[in-house]
Amino acid sequence: MGDEKLTSKHNPISKHYLVDVFGCDESVLNSEKDLYSTLLIAVEEAGSTCLGGMARSFSPQGVTVLLSLAESHASIHTWPELGQALIDYHVCGPHDFSKFMSAIQKRICAKKIDVKEISRGINN
Questions:
Q1: Is 92 annotated in the active site?
Q2: What CA–CA distance (Å, rounded) separates 90 from 69?
Q3: Catalytic residue among 72, 73, 90, 95
Q4: Longest dimension (CA), the chain
Q5: Contact at 8 Å (CB) between 15 and 72?
Q6: Could you tell me which residues come within 8 angstroms of residue 2 by beta carbon, excluding any fewer than 6 positions away?
Q7: Whether 50 is catalytic
């Protein structure tokens, strides 16, 4: 650490997208198989490389999917009974977030989407 001062003028090492989706298809949000393939397709269409992943269904409902990416990670956690899911997409390097979200939207039919984009790290 030293006397360096960080300013708002920096190049981020990565982008971290936090996505809340509402009004989704309950049956898709409760399907481990559908959500795994949805997230895998989304990261591939965005230009990311999946290194592996896992999915877990919960009782009485809900699913978590986590993909390890060469560029970082992607995950989705669902609450089917509420029609909601929380999606996390953290990537470094080239990617197309609009393609990622288009693939997600197409498969889960969200009626409302809230996205927060966070720049992470500094690349001088």
A1: yes
A2: 9
A3: 72
A4: 54
A5: no
A6: none
A7: no
